[in-house]
């Protein structure tokens, strides 16, 4: 008899699983049940459809039920809600949402890929018309209709994560004035706060009003169709439309009803073959907890790449392809574009590393910053990006990287992501042989650059210091930029000796104190550090230079200041 594989949820994880299962076996019967009206649509494209960057709705449809039938002999049943799983009898109960009929379907293998649900906290007024979440194509229709029919002018996006920022971009493109409200100190929570400072600056320069450290406490109707978004601080931000993008939680109703094991983070527990606590049921995508390949802890990573790979993994397991290694875990490699700025990261952030304990001891990590340009400086259009690399100080193992810039950012993070997945070190980045021609990169690519800087630290060729430690350091802070640069702005109490004069002016430096050097980005101060070390001084280079100082300062000021400096 043919193996009967039923798949619940027909988008990223479910559709990938079903198609892979068919490629592995022509003998199985495969049916996808999808609650919504579409299968295999591009969730990731939805914000761009709202902004009319993607103009045709059909372009969001990656594959139709007909294509699944014709290409793969897969039966797709849209508008079918799977209501329960009867594990004892290996059956599911399905409701046809068009006819209202229910039916039971037998399975040999069941795959659930039900995704995640946008968070909608029980705040006053949250159900007011004009407040939307974004998850499906019908959601985009409602949002577009609301904006167009009311000629909406002002939008508030609650949540500054990647969906929030993508929506901010697209609402701006659509001609609305946009405010972003974020309860944390900074947008893009996957990043460390200093790395978010350039994003804040960019949003501000693009006319987006940003309320960080601001929690939405409720919503109130104003006039006929407008809404006041009420912040905990007492401020009210007026909107004609509100988009809630405050995160998602795993959709586990079905898994709970079936008594499948659920983890502490609220996701379905699976093994590295995506098998749940029931040996005949697999689960993939946003609904599952997966292992973070850096920390080894469970985590929730609601991203399309992992969902697709997990779907494929579940199909391998169902079809008995045990020769293929299991799922490697996730590293949360992600990218977000907002109004020309690209933000990308892989692995863990510093704030996560601070929480990691090995045998109850904090994990030792080091970090460096760099500001390389995306291609050779001499080629027109060179633009700096900011990269932060986190690594083990003893053996140089890569823990994570974050980058923000106008061009070439995701390429560098992708390279580092691959190194990280292969348990690579900063020495691998130092030695990576990457493409170079002037318009694409540099003979020392940004990836090499961060690898070299970090490798110097691991080899103890120079000691690195950080702005967060300057105040308590008691060190002599040496600014090696030119006097003109120094005049334009410098760190309080810093001594200015330009690099070019340093050899002649060594006697001006205290011999009994540590010297911490900085320049604009960290390069000249690195030269100074080497020079001073060889002259017998105890010296450290403040990583990332004055540019990182400004980033830290920006976030700090914003937190200290009562009125939000980013409000426009
Ligand atoms: P989904 O793709 O959400 O599919 C789950 C499906 O299951 C849904 O269609 C749902 O209707 C169906 N379902 C649930 N319960 C039942 C049931 N009981 N019966 C029948 N059907 C059911 N990720 C990125 O990596 N990059 C991006 O740029 C990106 N952008 C995004 C933008 C938006 C606006 C959104 C919403 C998500 C974005 N994501 C992005 C996340 C990505 O889309 C998800 O991680 C991915 O789709 C998860 O796949 P999944 O199969 O787990 O769930």
**Total number of strands:** 33
What percent of residues adopt helix (DSSP H or I)? Answer: 25-40%
Sheet with the most strands, sense and barrel status: 5 strands, parallel
**Unique ligands:** flavin-adenine dinucleotide
**Molecular shape:** globular
Would you identify the regions where 5 or more consecutive residues have pLDDT less than 50?
561-568
Q: Helix tally? A: 17
CA-to-CA gap between the ends?
A: 67 Å
The Cα radius of gyration reads 26 Å
Which whole number gives the mean pLDDT? 95
Strand and helix layout:
Elements: E1 4-8, H1 12-24, E2 29-33, H2 46-50, H3 65-72, E3 75-77, E4 80-86, E5 91-96, E6 102-106, E7 109-112, E8 116-118, E9 131-132, H4 137-150, E10 154-158, H5 162-173, E11 177-181, H6 193-205, E12 209-211, E13 216-222, E14 226-231, E15 236-239, E16 241-244, E17 248-250, H7 253-257, E18 268-269, E19 281-283, E20 288-291, E21 298-299, H8 304-318, E22 334-338, E23 341-347, H9 350-355, E24 357-358, E25 361-362, E26 366-370, E27 385-391, E28 398-405, H10 409-421, H11 426-431, H12 446-458, E29 463-465, H13 470-473, E30 476-479, H14 483-488, E31 495-496, H15 499-502, E32 515-518, H16 523-534, E33 539-542, H17 545-560
Parallel strand pairs: 1-2, 1-7, 2-3, 7-19, 9-16, 10-11, 10-16, 11-12, 18-20, 29-33, 30-31, 30-32, 32-33
Antiparallel strand pairs: 4-5, 5-6, 8-17, 13-14, 14-15, 20-21, 22-23, 23-28, 24-25, 26-27, 27-28
Helix pairs in contact: 1-8, 6-17
The protein binds flavin-adenine dinucleotide.
């Amino acid at each position: 008899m043919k193996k009967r594989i039923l798949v619940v949820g027909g988008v990223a994880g479910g559709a990938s699983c079903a198609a892979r299962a068919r490629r592995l076996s022509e003998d199985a019967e495969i049916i996808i049940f999808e609650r919504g009206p579409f299968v295999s649509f591009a969730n990731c494209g939805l914000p761009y459809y709202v902004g009319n960057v993607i103009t045709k709705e059909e372009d969001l449809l990656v594959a139709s039920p007909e294509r699944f039938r014709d290409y793969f002999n897969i039966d797709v049943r849209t508008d079918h809600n799977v209501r329960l799983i009867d594990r004892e009898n290996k059956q599911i109960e399905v409701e046809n949402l068009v006819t209202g009929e229910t039916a039971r379907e037998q399975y040999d293998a069941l795959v659930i890929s039900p995704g995640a649900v946008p968070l909608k906290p029980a705040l006053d007024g949250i159900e007011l018309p004009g407040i939307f979440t974004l998850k499906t194509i019908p959601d985009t229709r409602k949002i577009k209709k609301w904006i167009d029919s009311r000629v909406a002018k002002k939008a508030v996006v609650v949540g500054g994560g990647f969906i929030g920022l993508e929506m901010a971009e697209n609402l701006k493109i659509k001609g609305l004035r946009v405010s972003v409200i974020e309860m944390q100190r900074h947008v893009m929570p996957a990043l460390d706060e200093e790395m978010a400072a350039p994003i804040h600056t960019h949003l501000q320069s693009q006319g987006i009003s940003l309320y960080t450290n601001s929690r939405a406490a409720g919503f109130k109707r104003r006039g006929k169709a407008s809404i006041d978004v009420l912040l905990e601080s007492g401020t009210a931000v007026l909107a004609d439309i509100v988009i809630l993008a405050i995160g998602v939680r795993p959709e586990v109703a079905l898994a709970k009803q079936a008594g499948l094991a659920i983890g502490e983070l609220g996701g379905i527990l699976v093994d590295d073959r995506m098998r749940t606590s029931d040996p005949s049921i697999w689960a993939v995508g946003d609904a599952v907890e997966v292992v973070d390949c850096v920390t080894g802890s469970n985590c929730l990573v609601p991203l399309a790449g992992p969902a697709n790979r997990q779907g494929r993994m579940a199909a391998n397991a169902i079809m008995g392809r045990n020769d293929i290694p299991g799922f490697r875990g996730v590293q949360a490699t992600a990218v977000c574009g907002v109004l020309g700025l690209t933000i990308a990261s892989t692995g863990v952030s510093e704030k996560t590393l601070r929480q990691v304990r090995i045998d109850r001891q904090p994990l030792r990590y080091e970090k460096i910053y760099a500001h390389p340009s995306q291609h050779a400086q001499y080629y027109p259009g060179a633009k700096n990006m900011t990269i932060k690399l986190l690594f083990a100080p003893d053996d140089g193992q890569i823990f994570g990287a974050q980058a923000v810039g106008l061009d070439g950012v995701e390429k560098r993070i992708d390279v580092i992501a691959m190194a990280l997945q292969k348990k690579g070190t900063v020495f691998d980045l130092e030695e990576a042989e990457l493409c170079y021609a002037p318009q694409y990169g540099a003979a020392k690519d940004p990836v090499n650059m961060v690898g070299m800087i970090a490798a110097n630290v691991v080899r103890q060729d120079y000691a690195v210091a950080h702005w967060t430690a300057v105040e308590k350091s008691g060190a002599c802070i040496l600014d090696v930029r030119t006097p003109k640069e120094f005049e334009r702005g410098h760190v309080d109490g810093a001594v200015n000796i330009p690099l070019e004069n340093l050899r002649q002016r060594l006697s001006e430096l205290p011999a009994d104190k540590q010297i911490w050097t900085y320049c604009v980005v960290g390069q000249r101060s690195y030269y100074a550090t080497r020079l001073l070390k060889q002259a017998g001084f105890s010296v450290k280079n403040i990583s990332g230079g004055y540019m990182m100082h400004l980033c830290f300062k920006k976030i700090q000021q914003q937190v200290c200041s009562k009125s939000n400096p980013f409000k426009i």
